Amino acid sequence: MTIAYGCITCEGNAQIDKLPPYERIAFDDHWRVAHAMGSALPGWLVLLPRRHVLAIAELTDAEAAGLGSWQVGLSRALHAVTRCVKTYIVQFAEADRFRHVHFHVIPRMEELSADRRGPRVFEFLTEPAEHAVTRDQMSALAAELALHLRRHG
């Protein structure tokens, strides 16, 4: 597995067994699922390749084959656990130390105000730290999501 030092994702992947449960909700040989840190929206997940990849075009056939299954499976798990009405799936990978390809899998709750829907959902990542989902909340959600994924694939 290729690891790039200075890459937050690769550093986590290199010590996957030591990560807290909310940073390894589920994983296989190619992908890892984590709850987004610093989000004010519970259930905001990040799907991360286990290998250092900077562009979607660099995914191997095996990584690409699993991508759709992961995205659909995570959307189903979020629907079951959070009762969201849909999920947004977004990929940019442009921020410093976060250029490693990653997919945001974001629950869109029915009651989400119109001014936070679509791309504006990213405002949940810019709120003050005291509004962020706590580690305890992330851990509880991670346990429920992991259980659902184990039971339903």
Describe the protein's architecture and organization.
With 153 residues, this protein is an alpha+beta fold. It has a single domain (8-152), classed as HIT family, subunit A (2-Layer Sandwich). It contains three helices and five strands, in the order H-E-E-E-H-E-E-H. It has helices at 8-14, 61-82, 135-152, and strands spanning 26-27, 31-35, 45-49, 86-90, 103-108. Strands 1-2-3-5-4 form a five-stranded antiparallel β-sheet. Helix 2 crosses helix 3.
Key descriptive features of the protein:
HIT family, subunit A; five-stranded antiparallel beta sheet; 3 helices
Care to give the gist of this entry?
The protein has 153 residues and is of the alpha+beta class. It has a five-stranded antiparallel beta sheet with strand order 1-2-3-5-4.
Mean pLDDT: 93
Globally, the shape reads globular
Written as H for each helix and E for each strand, in order along the chain, the element string is HEEEHEEH
Question: How large, in whole angstroms, is the Cα Rg?
Answer: 15 Å
Kindly identify the CATH topology: HIT family, subunit A
Number of strands: 5
Distance between the termini: 24 Å
Query: How many H/I helical runs?
Result: 3
Q: What is the beta-strand fraction?
A: 15-25%
Number of domains: 1
Which segments are poorly predicted (pLDDT under 50) over 5 or more consecutive residues?
Answer: none
Q: Level of helix content?
A: 25-40%
Query: What's the arrangement of strands in the largest beta sheet?
Result: 1-2-3-5-4
The main β sheet shows up as:
5 strands, antiparallel
CATH architecture verdict: 2-Layer Sandwich
CATH class: Alpha Beta
Structural class: alpha+beta
The CATH superfamily title: HIT-like
